[in-house]
Every structure is written in C-alpha cells, then in structure tokens.
Design brief:
With 554 residues, the chain is α/β, with parallel strands linked by helices. The protein folds into three domains: 3-182, Rossmann fold (3-Layer(aba) Sandwich), CATH 3.40.50; 192-348, Rossmann fold; 365-551, Thiamin diphosphate (ThDP)-binding fold, Pyr/PP domains (Rossmann fold). 38% of the residues lie in helices and 17% in strands. Strands 3-2-4-5-7-6 form a six-stranded parallel beta sheet, sandwiched between helices. It has a six-stranded parallel beta sheet with strand order 11-10-9-12-13-14, sandwiched between helices. A six-stranded parallel beta sheet has the order 16-15-17-18-20-19, with helices on both faces. Helix 1 crosses helix 2 (31-40), helix 3 runs parallel beside helix 5 (82-91) and helix 10 (192-203) packs across helix 13.
Length: 554
C-alpha cells in the first residue's frame, strides 16, 4: 500500500500526460509537488522570479506543440505570474498553471496570503478551479489538460489549497483517468457543401490569399496547408502576432499579415478572396478590415471554434472543423474545379517583397557606428537563421527583427504576441533551449526589455542552458520615446531615456560569457565566440537611436 501526498498525486497525472518539465519558483505551499516530480522523473527548472516560470511554460508549449506546466506559490507568487498567463491567453497557448493557496477551510476567512486567486485569473484562462478534496486531484488535473488542448487551445489554472496538497491518501483508493479515455482524439471534418462553395470562390479569384493562424501549428496542419498551397499556387501569410504556421521557408510564403512588420502585407488590400485558417480577427490583423484588407474582399473562414466565426468581420463561407482534415478535403477537391494558379498576383507580391528587402538591405549592410539594429538582425540570421530558436523582446528591437527575419522564416520564432508586452525574452530563450537542446537558442532584445530578465542568466547557468542574447543598446525606451519627441519635442522627452549599462559585465558577474561589440563587422565573430564558449552569453551592441516605424509600409 502506497500513501501519497496531494502533490505526488498531481505529478502522477502529469506523468501520465507525458509532462517532462515543471517550470517553477519555490514556495512553501507547493513543495509537495517537487517531491512528486523527483519520484516520477519530471525535471524541475527553477527560476529566479515567478513570471519567468510561467513565461517559460508558455514558450515551451509553443515550441513543442504540447502543454507547458508551471508551478508557483500562493499569494504574491500567484499574483506575480499573471503577466505570463495573460500573454498565453492572448496568444492561445496551452499553458497549465498550478498555484498554491491557504487551507481549504480558511478560504474567504483572510488566511495567510489568501485572496480569490481563481477569480483573479478567470478572465485570462479557458478554465480555472480550486480543488477542495485531495481524492479529486486526478479528476481536476486531467480536466485541465482537456480544457487546455480542446478546441482552440489556451491557458488553464489549477489552485490547490495547502491541506489538499499535503494531505495523504491511499493510492489504491484513487481513480486515475487515462488520458486516451478522457478526451476526444478524433478530428472534426468540414461540411462538404461549404468546402465546395469555398473552392468555387477560390477558383474564380484573381488575387486570392491565405492567412494561416497559429491554429495551423496547434492542429498539426502545416503539411496539409503546404499541400493545398502547392496544388493551387495561392500565396499565404501567417497571422500577425501569432506562432509560426510553418517551420521552414516556402516560395509562396510572404511573411506576417500586419501593417507593422513590413514585407508584402500592404498588397493584402488588393486580395479579392481571403482564406482565413483559424484566424481571430483582432487588432493584430486590422479586424479583417481596411487598411489591411479591402472592404469588398470575400472571406472564407475555417475554424474549430464556432464562436469566432463572423466576429468583427462577416464571412462569405464558413467552415467549422479541424484545419488538417478540412485542408486535406479542400486539396482533394481542387481537381473538380477550374483552378488557374494566380501567377501574376504572386509575381506582384514577389516584386513588392523584393522592393522591401532592398529597402532594408542598406541598413542591414550599414557600417555605421553606433550599429544599426538591422545589422544585428542580419548577423543573427546569417549565422543562426536556418536552425535556431530565435526569441524577440522589446519595442523597436522586436519590430526591426520581424522585418529582417520574416521572409527567411526561422523554424521557431518566439515573441510576446498580441499582448504586446516586453520582458519575456530571456525566459522564452531559456524555454527554447529546453525544448530544442541540440539547436541554438538566440534572443534579440532591446536594452530596456533585457533589464527585466537578466537575472535569469543565473537560471541559465544553473540548468546548463547556453542561450545567447544580443542586446541592441540605444539607451532608450525607443518605441515610446520616438513619438514622445515628435509630439512634445526633445526638451519635453522624459522617463523614456536609459543609462548606458554594461550588460556584458552583468553576465560576467553571473559567471556567464559577456562581450561588448562596437563595430558591425565584429558582431558575427562575437556571436561565434559566444556559441563556442558553451556558456550562457550576452553580446552588448550600442546601436543608433532610430525608429522601426519609418521602415513599415504605408
């Protein structure tokens, strides 16, 4: 007979769900979970601040396509991880957050560090529950996985009172649900009549386009997408602010559909038919309206979530279903329609893209001192672009990186997403290294945003995660300072400047590799030295103060 604490029961379920890592910051209310992790072979990655644990779990989920699990203590630990949870919520990432609480019989009595924790996270989760009985832990933990992965993915939260987590119970009395029997494994196929209508509309289009959202990644539909693209010759974009739809470049891929990141996006206003795959029509994609799209364009929407259909943008054809089978069915139906590959339209997009690339090339090849931020992006792309996990952080630094990397499509590009926040860069890079240990994990970041996460270099060294951060140091909160100066004048620009900080020396103080680079032609060799060091590394590059907005298409 085995007697288990509640925390050990939780990890038995996590093990059944093939969870390999718990991202966490310690606290007295969750130590029982650590004991279970040790017993069940779940690796613990402990961070220096609570938000980093949640952010790492989010990024790990994005890279692996599975669930990332984080654990924080009650009260302040729970409150501190909210930003990471909100980021996952707006990205639609299956983050599983577990937090401690006071004893169940002290809830609503003002117990130690006690407040309505589930109420705090309810607006930014698909599902949140407080577990009041130890014997029901397997049921609730399993339900969390079903909720996180079911339909449109998203974050979930489980709140476990102290006594529920530490109470002991006979393992023989516990019913552990089998994952294969507790959630559906089949795929939802599309309505044949609606698929036929969609194909007719696309076949008759002169300038059709596909917008593929992160659902393509979560629903394992990248292969089906490429099959359809190659069968029809229709060009495609990824949804602005979303995870990658594909993990390798393709000649018909034209980058992110966004008014901010450059590329051929400005030509979307000339598309006459838009096939939207799992797209949320929010601000990142101009709500499906001008200026990004023409008001008279026809829209075909495919989504597993019926509640998203018609939101903000009315559709002409709506297909409820899983993207993989729907795209396969559409590919099979191409031969039954008179499709003509839109070569003139693709050539037009290609010319616009080439023009934008040429526009960036001057800055990318600039030998100016201080360095132009686009030169940093070029050096990273040339050294690591084919196989690295690349994370982005900051305002202008992130926008410049999107412009420079978008067309080359690194296999895994991690960034904040629709929430538009900063400070997640180092945790994201760490998670990228955990998920893909044999590939480089590189962060391009602004100096302001890097300040949020630099202490996690201690985590990087502790867990042997040799990430490389290259810091674009323009001594400003640039994305705020530029419009502030334009609006009020340089003499009225306050609270948006930063001191010159020797970030490379901070890294050295944490026993990591650090190097200051002041000349453009030294960046590549410095990055190589950082990679060869085998240690977590920081390359600090003073850069010119320039706005990414000036490079965006009009």
């Amino acid at each position: 007979m085995a007697v288990l604490e509640g925390g050990q029961i939780i990890t038995k379920v996590l093990k059944q769900e093939n969870v390999e890592y718990l991202f966490t910051l310690c606290g007295g209310t969750i130590e029982s979970i650590y004991e279970g992790c040790l017993n069940d072979g779940i690796k613990i990655i402990d961070t220096r601040v609570d938000p980093s644990a949640t952010m790492m779990a989010d990024a790990y989920a994005r890279v692996t396509g599975g669930v990332g699990v984080s654990g924080v203590t009650r009260g302040p630990g729970h409150a501190a991880m909210i930003y990471g949870l909100a980021t996952a919520h707006m990205m639609g990432s299956p983050l599983y957050s577990i937090s401690g609480n006071s004893d169940a019989d002290q809830i609503d009595m003002g117990g130690s560090q006690e407040y309505n924790q589930t109420g705090l996270v309810k607006p930014i989760t698909k599902w949140t529950r407080l577990v009041a009985q130890t014997e029901r832990l397997p049921e609730y933990v399993g339900t969390g996985f079903r909720k996180a992965l079911g339909g449109r993915p998203g974050p979930v939260h489980l709140n476990v009172p102290y006594d529920v987590l530490y109470d002991k119970i006979d393992d023989a009395e516990i019913d552990y649900p089998e994952p294969s029997n507790s959630r559906a494994n089949g795929r939802i196929h599309g309505d044949p009549e609606q698929i036929d209508r969609a194909l007719k509309l696309l076949a008759g289009a002169e300038s059709p386009v596909i917008i593929a959202a992160g659902a393509t990644h979560w629903q394992d539909a990248a292969g089906a997408l490429l099959d359809f693209v190659e069968a029809t010759g229709i060009p495609f974009f990824s949804r602005g602010g979303d995870v990658n739809a594909i993990t390798r470049p393709h000649p018909l891929f034209f980058g992110m559909a966004s008014t901010r990141f450059g590329n051929a996006s400005k030509e979307l206003r000339n598309a006459d038919v838009v096939l939207a795959l799992g797209v949320k029509f929010d601000t990142t994609i101009s709500y499906g309206k001008p200026p990004l799209f023409h008001q008279d364009a026809k829209f075909i929407c495919v989504d597993i979530d019926a509640e998203e259909m018609g939101k903000n943008r009315p559709f002409d054809v709506g297909i409820i279903g899983d993207l993989q089978p729907v795209l396969n069915e559409m590919t099979n139906g191409v031969s039954q329609h008179d499709f003509h590959k839109p070569t003139d339209w693709v050539e037009r997009l290609s010319l616009v893209r080439q023009g934008f690339r040429e526009r960036l090339a001057k800055a990318e090849n600039s030998d100016s001192v201080p360095v132009h931020p686009l030169r940093i992006c070029k050096e990273v792309r040339e050294l690591f672009g084919d196989d690295a996990t690349i994370s982005l952080d900051g305002g202008d630094a992130s926008l410049f990186s999107h412009m420079a990397l978008d067309h080359y499509h690194p296999p895994y590009l991690l960034f904040t997403g629709p929430i538009g926040g900063i400070g997640q860069g180092v945790p994201f890079a760490l998670a990228g290294k955990v998920a893909r240990p044999d590939q480089p994990s590189v962060l391009i970041t602004g100096d302001g945003s890097f300040g949020y996460g630099i202490i996690e270099y201690d985590t990087a060294l502790k867990h042997d995660l040799p990430i490389i951060s290259i810091v674009s140091s323009d001594e400003a909160w640039g994305i705020v300072r530029h419009p502030q100066i334009q609006r009020y004048g340089l003499d009225r620009a306050v609270a948006t400047d930063l001191r010159a900080v020797s970030y490379e020396r901070v890294a050295e103080a944490l026993d990591c590799y650090g190097e200051l680079v002041t000349k453009p032609d030294e960046i590549g060799p410095a990055l190589q030295r950082a990679a060869d060091s085998g240690r977590p590394a920081v390359i600090n590059v003073p850069t010119i103060f320039t706005s990414a907005a000036a490079y965006c298409p009009q």
